[in-house]
């Protein structure tokens, strides 16, 4: 199953799938119509204060990965978030949540990449 519905709402994975589809469609349209192209900046394995960017905005609670990606772009000085991919990583590392300022040290999700709109 690519996504699931829990209590009438899409799970984090379902929202991720929809975000990736939206980004793919927007990029495709941008390529086809150069006047509609959006200038972007991609951050692979984004970090905040030397820590990987967590896939969740705050804890405990819903993951709010989109909110985390938006906060990251704004923190970097970009007006909007364009796309992101959230995943899981195995190993010893720390991640940073921007919503509550917390750090995750076990069973953390991470932002694989975040793409911000330049203008």
Could you describe the 3D structure shown?
With 119 residues, the chain is an alpha+beta fold. The protein has one domain (5-117). It has helices at residues 12-32, 65-75, and strands at residues 5-6, 9-10, 40-44, 47-48, 51-53, 80-88, 95-96, 103-104, 109-117. Residues 1-8 and 24-33 have low confidence and may be disordered.
- DSSP helix fraction: 25-40%
Intertermini distance: 36 Å
Helices, by number, come to: 2
Percentage of residues in DSSP E strands: 25-35%
Oligomeric state of the chains in view:
single chain
Q: Can you write the helix and strand succession as a string?
A: EEHEEEHEEEE
Order the strands across the largest sheet as they lie in space. Answer: 4-5-7-8
Which class of secondary structure composition applies to the elements?
Answer: alpha+beta
> How many whole angstroms does the radius of gyration measure?
15 Å
Largest sheet: 4 strands, mixed
Query: Stretches where pLDDT falls below 50 for ≥5 residues?
Result: 1-8, 24-33
Shape field: globular
Say how many strands there are: 9
Give the overall pLDDT as a whole number: 80
The structural domain count equals 1
């Amino acid at each position: 199953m690519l996504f699931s519905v829990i209590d009438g709402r899409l799970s984090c994975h379902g929202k991720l799938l929809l975000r990736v589809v939206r980004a793919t469609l927007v990029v495709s349209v941008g390529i086809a119509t150069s006047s509609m192209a959006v200038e972007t900046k991609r951050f692979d394995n984004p970090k905040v204060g030397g820590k990987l960017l967590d896939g969740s905005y705050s804890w405990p609670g819903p993951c709010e990965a989109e909110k985390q990606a938006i906060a990251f772009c704004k923190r970097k000085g970009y007006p909007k978030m364009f796309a992101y991919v959230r995943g899981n990583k195995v190993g010893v590392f720390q991640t940073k949540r921007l919503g509550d300022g917390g750090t995750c040290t076990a069973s953390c999700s991470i932002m694989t990449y975040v793409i911000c709109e330049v203008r």
